[in-house]
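Give me the fold.
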Amino acid sequence: LISAANVRQDPQKRTQVAYNGLVLGGILSGLLGTLFFVFAPQWYALFNADSQVIELGTRYLRLMAFFYVTGTVGWIMRSIFRANTEAVKALKLTLVNVSVTALLLYPLIFGLGALPASGLLGAGWAHLLGRVGAVVLGAFYLIRTKTRSIQFVREHLRIDLKVMKEILGLLSWKVVESVGTRIYASIVLAIIASLGTAAVAAYGVAFTFEGMFVVIGVAFGVTVCALMGEDLGKGLFARAKEIVRKSNHYAQAVAWALTLPMLIWPEAVVRFFVKDPVVVAQAAVLLPYFAISNAIFLAGFVFASGLLGAKDTRTPAVISLGAQYLVGLPLMAAGV
């Protein structure tokens, strides 16, 4: 929507979309966070966890409820900057997030000086504070500095139900896809939990690497979506297709640069994160499959973002959910 407003040279619409998108994202993520906060014990009980795991997991998930809100707002801010051709500001938000988290992880997990060791909850606080730092910087850019044609001033800070309805219209299929994906992930985790604690730990280690591919995918995806929207608005259809094609080439180059070490030295890579020999053995077997699937996933992310740039949210959702429920889940259930 911001890209389309750029094509029409409509600064007021740009600002309305940005502000109402942030408000709407905060409300929706707040509702989701509230559900996690309230039903955290019941969530862990689904996986037949013992009382100690349920207690610690509940405290961690309730902390993550705030993490989801700040994370969502931060992602929307980065999307606003990228859509407005200000990728450097989006990158700075990411760097603040990563830097604050990295600086706080060790002292909050293991303790340092007057800081007590907090273990898993310390890791949660480090991630949460990293997200908060990114949101504070994003708010500074939007309020205190001129962000090209997007700057929040008093007359812009109002709820526009028409703009929110337009955003929700585009979001509807993405919400269906996101909810479906979360349910799918929960089913997968429940299936893996039936194989024992070591299997869950090995899956968690392998799944950690998916985060790298997701970050890369989002960076390419948001850029492709913005450029597609602008080119299609100008009637440059051939150039729009070329953007998707070339973006996928660049994304695949990055993806396979990350994938090859996981294929060649899976056990060595896993040992950076865990030392338990049973977990290492299982994770080392799983990691190459995760690496290849994530490289393929990255291509799908870029192509789906191209469709989103053309305001087609249904096709990517149908493809994603179909792949998960009609292919992935039956194969996993049969394999187990």
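The first helix runs from residue 2 to 8.
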